[in-house]
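Hi P.,

Sorry for the delay on this. The queue was packed all week, but I finally got your sequence through. Input first:
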Amino acid sequence: MTKTCVVTGKKITMGFNVSHSKRHTKKILRPNQIKRSLLNPATGRMVTVVISSRGLRTLKKWQREGKIYNLAEMAKKGL
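Then the structure:
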């Protein structure tokens, strides 16, 4: 199973390196993901999740807006 961001759903994708002669070689495009322990606002407990940098920015935005979200449920869904 690949690591998927619990907020944005970002995961590994495939692409091509293309040289000047137009030769295609496969490459893996990895998102900037990290494993973090974050405070779950719904339960008040720490939850360890795999999250992208964009996902962290989204969570900060949700906290500013006062939005209640449950990280444990997001992690179980796996988007």
